[in-house]
Design goal:
The complex is a heterodimer of chains A (378) and B (368). Chain A is α/β, with parallel strands linked by helices and 378 residues long. Chain A has 17 helices and 13 strands. Chain B is globular, with a radius of gyration of 21 Å. In chain B, helix 3 runs parallel beside helix 4 and helix 6 runs antiparallel to helix 9. The chains are: A alpha/beta (378), B alpha+beta (368).
């Protein structure tokens, strides 16, 4: 995979880290990486441990699994337990706890829950099992919503009626606004979403510098992309600029993917409000199927409980998602809440800040530095 | 059993205090909290460990079982030691590029026996067949077992057959057990592992797991990846002849290299430091793993071993393994250290590093 290795070159990384040190000149800077994909890369490659200590990264809300509230998981389980239903879900969602257990446990009790890698797989299952009803648990930001939309277009085109979608798609701009409005957070800039921006482009973020006076650099997901994004943010701060910049030019165009946006507009419409894990209800932040696709809407086809469930008291996922606290500052982190027995969603998905920190980053800078001492030759 | 680093009396940062608390918490025996079995209990990660500890170990407790190695070491009245191990194969699909459930059933057991340092010699086989399974398919799989037995130098000397109703088994399941004598001068033990020892992997990792996942045809990815299923008895004897000071061996099947390194770190109270750049991974396996969002370090192998070798014998061990037909891509991939005890750390190709933990349990399909 040459494509990947190019963005993981250690010599280029050392140069970028050096540049970060020079430009930041010891001044404390706090940047939020918006995407769960960024968080995952930062921990998987150990980026925090090679950055100068004056650069602080805070982990943002862009993890699709992490933002699903417990009530929606309960609804999903209720759908999965309908007779004749084959319930299909991405693997990440299988272990997310609702108020009465998770989908894996529902499966162990007899529900027909199947893991898929794409909504098209779910549609194929529906076509192969015409006597059964197949429901797809749709989650994700504008990144995954187009593939759900395309699947629904296909279902309509082929007249497949035993297929429906339980939509939990969300949009990235409203939670960014919510974070910027939050009084308890002081940020110097954003490492902007990569994959989402390939769909929506860079224009929707213009309010970030314009209204809130924070720079944003749309960045890719390889380690060097993130270091480069930090360099670009620091240059803006040094030069007194405050604007949207695009580090991820190999994938993101300013206007986004117009075809995907058209498909989204055709299949989905904004909900008046949608509940986010830990962030509460946010206006116009969720997508539901438009009236033209009502026949494929699982929330209309079945009676879903739709009961709002309060987050467990001990769980501080909301503060973690807003970047107010670090994963390790949560009171239940690593003891009551672990990847084996997660209380909060941030501990389930590999893109969740808590899971990434627990699985990859659970050691001090000193221990990390000691481990990097090269192996003695025999 | 010390804290992750530093000594307990000096003041520590709030983050480090949390880390110490977590580490203490992790050292408690895993607890089985589930009321029902789910797929995670079979994945070889922490959920499997909790099940073994919470159900089997409590009921069967004895000295031979207690070390929870790949097989039991039993001492005969004559003083000779034998290694005894068992394994079940439930792979789906029954055939995949590079082998079949028949090959896996033999290799899985003989490799477990070989990892004890023994020479695998006798194998049993029990078949659970589903009503309606085609005899021609059974013949084919049994022929694969016979072939695998010849290549492994073992005889299948006893067996059993059961038929269950349609839907109660996925075609067929095979359970095998194996026995072999441990040469008098071989003493493999995690407790013999010392800081400074080197970590050797006998070839490319993740081939088997990725080959089987792709063979299921559900992922829509096509790549030329073949299972590495192979008997490792000969390779072990080659390695032990060249590096008699070898401390410990394990075949990284379910849970992959990451899981066996974690088991070693826990058992020997050492740190295992791996170098990502040194890990042999086929580009096609790496590519498939990137797409699937999984780490080849956790993917199953059926024809590879991880050896902890003495530093002064590392070069000899590597040369001997590379000269063997099953070890051409072998590499020294890391080192055992004192700190942080009980942990596996990987230095990434990019220049940073991270912890490599046990998996909580993965939702991936049955691959062995």
């Amino acid at each position: 995979m040459k494509f990947v290795d190019e963005y993981r070159d250690p010599a280029a990384a050392r140069r970028a880290v050096e540049e970060i040190s020079v430009i930041s000149a010891g001044e404390h800077r706090k940047f939020m990486e918006v995407c769960g994909g960024h968080t995952h890369t930062i921990y998987k490659h150990g980026i925090e441990n090679v950055l100068p200590t004056n650069i602080e990264l805070v982990h943002g809300p862009g993890c699709p699994v992490c933002v699903i509230p417990m009530g929606r998981v309960d609804d999903a389980i209720a759908l999965a337990e309908q007779p004749d239903v084959i319930f299909t879900s991405f693997g990440d969602m299988m272990r997310v706890p609702g108020s009465k257990g998770n989908l894996l446990e529902a499966k162990a009790r007899g529900a027909d829950v199947r893991m898929v890698y794409s909504p098209l797989d779910a549609l194929r299952i529906a076509m192969a099992n015409p006597e059964r009803q197949v429901v797809f648990f749709a989650i994700g930001f504008e990144t995954t919503a187009p593939s759900t939309a395309v699947t629904l277009l296909k279902a309509r085109e082929r007249g497949i009626t035993n297929f429906s979608v339980f939509s939990n798609h969300v949009t990235i701009v409203p939670p960014l606004k919510a974070i910027l409005d939050s009084p308890d957070l002081r940020l110097d800039g954003f490492i902007g979403p990569g994959h989402v921006s390939t769909v929506i482009g860079n224009r929707p973020y213009r309010f970030v510098p314009a209204t809130y006076g924070k720079p944003l650099v749309t960045s890719g997901f390889e380690p060097l992309d993130i270091l480069q994004g930090i360099v670009m943010l620091l240059r803006q701060l040094r030069d007194g600029r405050c604007e949207i910049e695009n580090q991820y030019t190999r994938a993101v165009r300013d206007e986004g993917n117009t075809k995907a946006l058209q498909v989204l507009a055709e299949v989905f419409e904004l909900r008046p409000h949608f509940e986010w894990r830990g962030l509460g209800f946010i206006s116009h932040s969720g997508l539901k199927l438009s009236p033209a696709f009502a026949d494929w809407d699982a929330e209309l086809r079945y009676l879903v409980p739709g009961v709002r469930v309060a987050d467990p008291k001990a769980c501080q996922c909301g503060e973690v998602l807003k970047g107010v606290i670090k994963p390790w500052e949560c009171k239940v982190f690593g003891t009551a809440c672990t990847p084996e027995t997660p209380i909060g969603t941030c501990m389930v998905s590999s893109e969740g800040a808590c899971a990434a920190y627990y699985n990859y980053g659970r050691f001090t800078r000193e221990a990390a530095a000691a481990a990097r001492i090269p192996v003695r030759s025999a | 059993m010390g804290p992750p680093s530093g000594n307990g009396s000096e003041p520590v940062s709030p983050e480090e205090a949390v880390l110490r608390r977590i580490e203490a918490f992790r050292r408690k025996a895993p607890r089985l909290r589930d009321d029902f079995i789910n797929s995670a209990h079979g994945a070889g990660g922490k959920a499997s460990a909790a099940l073994v500890d919470g159900v089997f170990l409590q009921a069967f407790a004895n000295d031979a079982l207690a070390p929870l190695t790949d097989g039991a070491t039993l001492t005969l009245p004559s003083g000779e030691r034998v290694a005894f191990s068992t394994d079940s194969s439930v792979v789906n699909p029954l055939r995949f590029p590079g082998g079949s459930i028949g090959h896996l059933a033999v290799h899985g057991t003989v490799n477990d026996v070989a990892m004890m340092g023994a020479v695998p010699t006798w194998v049993s086989a029990a078949f659970i067949l589903e009503d309606g399974f085609a005899v021609v398919d059974l013949r084919g799989i049994v022929a694969d077992m016979a072939e695998a037995a010849v290549n492994a130098g073992v005889s299948i000397v006893t067996g059993d057959t059961k038929v269950v109703s349609k839907g109660a088994a996925d075609g067929l399941y095979i359970s095998t057990a194996g026995v072999g004598v441990i040469p008098a001068d071989v003493h493999l033990d995690a407790r013999a592992v010392r800081p400074g020892d080197r970590v050797l992997v006998s070839g490319t990792i993740g081939d088997h797991g990725v080959a089987v996942m792709l063979a299921r045809g559900e992922l829509g990815i096509e790549a030329d990846i073949v299972s590495d299923t192979a008997p490792l008895g000969g390779l072990v004897q080659t390695l032990l002849a060249a590096a008699p000071g070898t401390r410990w061996l394990r075949d990284p099947t379910r849970g992959g290299v990451a899981t066996v390194c974690n088991e070693l770190a826990r058992a020997a109270e050492v740190a295992v430091i791996l170098n990502e750049a040194d890990l042999p991974v086929r580009p096609a396996v790496n590519g498939a793993c990137e797409i699937l969002g999984i780490d080849p370090l956790y993917v199953a192998n059926e024809g590879k071993l991880v050896a902890i070798v003495a530093p002064e014998e590392a070069d000899a061990a590597l040369a001997a393994v590379r000269a063997h037909p099953l070890g051409a891509d072998a590499a020294l991939v890391g080192e055992v250290r004192d700190d942080p005890p009980g942990m596996v750390v990987i230095n990434t190709g990019f220049g940073g590093n991270r912890i490599v933990d046990m998996l909580a349990g993965d939702p991936l399909p049955r691959i062995c």
